[in-house]
């Protein structure tokens, strides 16, 4: 399984529009549906996360992603940050990343955000997603303000990895800045994970 760094898309890029089926609810949801506020306050930002079920890098951080969902999206979706997780791996070659297993993963971890299946992989390409996990945080104007690592923790794989606890420190700092109406620090480190499993053309 090859290790890949995120592409570090240019800050200020507009969040590409999409419409995908949520593996949890079975409903088709678009970017604007997800970004729409359900509470009294307007959304401050949108977090798009490219993840999957089987990747050891995602497994290493998946519980923290659930905590981030509860802290920023809120228990009932009323929080300041809209969140979507997207699974873009080829499910023909990697059936363990298919909808049934996506639902199991979300239920096990208490993920309260939509978990969308990008079967054509067009959304991953439009976001220039490269690895799992790959994080893209947009501000209230849907402009990219953070792309990079969750934190410095890495799972041990052969001679790579560390014993640093998973805290979500870097992404949380960016989220806190967006919630406060500020720009996150532009000194950002790329995310590292398994490469997205592209379909053979």
Automatic annotation (TrEMBL):
Residues 9-180 form the Thioredoxin domain. Gene3D superfamilies: Glutaredoxin. GO terms for molecular function: oxidoreductase activity. PROSITE patterns: THIOREDOXIN_2 (PS51352). This is Thioredoxin domain-containing protein. It comes from Granulicella mallensis. The lineage of its organism: Bacteria, Pseudomonadati, Acidobacteriota, Terriglobia, Terriglobales.
């Amino acid at each position: 399984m090859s290790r890949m760094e995120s592409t570090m898309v240019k800050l200020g890029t507009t969040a590409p529009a999409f419409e995908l089926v949520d593996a949890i609810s079975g409903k088709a949801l678009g970017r604007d549906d997800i970004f729409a506020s359900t509470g009294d306050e307007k959304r401050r930002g949108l977090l798009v996360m490219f993840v999957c079920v089987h990747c050891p890098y995602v497994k290493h951080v998946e519980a923290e992603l659930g905590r981030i969902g509860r802290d920023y999206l809120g228990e009932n979706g009323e929080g300041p940050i809209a969140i979507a997780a997207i699974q873009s791996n080829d499910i023909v070659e990697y059936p363990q990343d298919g909808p049934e297993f996506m639902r199991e993963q979300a239920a096990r971890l208490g993920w309260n955000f939509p978990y969308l299946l990008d079967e054509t992989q067009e959304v991953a390409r439009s976001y220039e997603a490269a690895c799992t996990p790959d994080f893209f945080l947009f501000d209230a104007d849907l402009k990219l303000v953070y792309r990079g690592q969750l934190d410095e923790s890495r799972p041990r794989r052969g001679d790579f990895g560390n014993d640093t606890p998973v805290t979500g420190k870097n992404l949380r700092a960016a989220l806190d800045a967006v919630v406060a109406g500020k720009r996150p620090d532009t000194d950002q480190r790329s995310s590292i994970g398994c490469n997205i499993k592209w379909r053979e053309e």
